[in-house]
């Protein structure tokens, strides 16, 4: 009897593993797979990280440059960069699913991949809370829903705790600087604006439609942010953040509210975004503590 029951469980599991998978991506298109993906290629570093979070890291066979987290990601075969994909390498890896990035990958590259017959899922999450649902969808695509759902649950709990603690705090007008030349920031639809809102901040360029618009020094001075937050390219605080010190009329400069958050923690749409959010929230809380009393 026990052997029969065990056999039925194994058969049911096999059927579930081979079941058709239907998942809607962030463009609204439905991605259909005959069974959960076993050989996945991602076209952006943050997608690698999210797949690992969903328990599907072992199914990754290809990715792009700068995919460096977690440590295992460094060993995955490269198929070019997020801007330019090596189609020959992609074909040789025989993926059964490719995950692309709407705002980062070339539309022409995506269409070429589809033209070669590969199923392509397009990711584009613009709100921090949507990271959790992406983890869940990746888990469905890869057949690792148990791990994906658990990771998504942990993300939601931590997000809710940060929201409860910081989102209703007195607002801090914030300028987020991506780069110096050209001087780039984030618009209201960029996910970093979502992080700023979570922390009770207000992006001074919230009304700009572009995800990463170029602005002028004069526009920043006119906006008069209470905090300036920079990212840069590496783990170290960029030297150009201190260039703002010459503009003493800016409140952020007058109160020494010039902050840095590692770009990997705040510019990648992954579970680690909450690490970046926690740092930013603490920094905006510092800015609040430096307000004149009375």
Automatic annotation (TrEMBL):
Domain annotation Fe/B12 periplasmic-binding: ranges: 39-288
BP GO terms, sorted: cellular response to iron ion
Keyword Signal set for record: yes
Protein name: Cobalamin-binding protein
Gene3D superfamilies in alphabetical order: Nitrogenase molybdenum iron protein domain
Family annotation (Pfam families): Peripla_BP_2
Keyword annotations: Signal
Coiled-coil residue spans: none
Signal sequence bounds: 1-19
Gene source species: Candidatus Propionivibrio dominans
């Amino acid at each position: 009897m026990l052997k029969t029951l065990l056999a039925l469980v194994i058969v049911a599991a096999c059927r579930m593993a081979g079941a058709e998978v239907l998942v809607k991506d962030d463009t609204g298109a439905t991605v259909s797979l005959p069974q959960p993906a076993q050989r996945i290629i991602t076209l952006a570093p943050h997608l690698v990280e999210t797949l690992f979070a969903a328990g599907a890291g072992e199914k990754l066979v290809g990715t792009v440059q700068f995919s460096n987290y977690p440590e295992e990601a460094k060993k995955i075969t490269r198929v070019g960069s997020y801007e330019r994909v090596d189609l020959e390498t992609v074909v040789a890896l025989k993926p059964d699913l490719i995950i692309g990035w709407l705002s980062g990958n070339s539309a022409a590259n995506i269409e070429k991949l589809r033209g070669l017959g590969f199923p392509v899922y397009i990711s584009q999450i613009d709100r921090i809370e949507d990271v959790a649902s992406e983890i869940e969808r990746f888990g469905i695509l890869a057949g690792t829903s148990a791990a994906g759902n658990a990771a998504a649950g942990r993300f939601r709990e931590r997000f809710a705790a940060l929201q409860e603690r910081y989102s209703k705090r007195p607002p801090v007008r914030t300028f987020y600087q991506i780069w110096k030349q050209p001087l780039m920031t984030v618009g209201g639809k960029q996910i970093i604006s979502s992080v700023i809102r979570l922390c009770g901040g207000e992006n001074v360029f919230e009304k700009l439609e572009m995800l990463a618009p170029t602005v002028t020094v004069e526009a920043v001075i006119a906006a008069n942010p209470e905090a300036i937050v920079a990212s840069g390219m590496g783990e170290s605080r960029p030297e150009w953040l201190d260039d703002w010190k010459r503009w003493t009329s800016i409140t952020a400069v007058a109160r020494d509210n010039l902050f840095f958050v590692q770009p990997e923690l705040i510019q990648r749409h992954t579970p680690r975004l909450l690490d970046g959010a926690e740092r930013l929230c603490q920094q905006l809380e510092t800015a609040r503590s430096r307000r004149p009393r009375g």
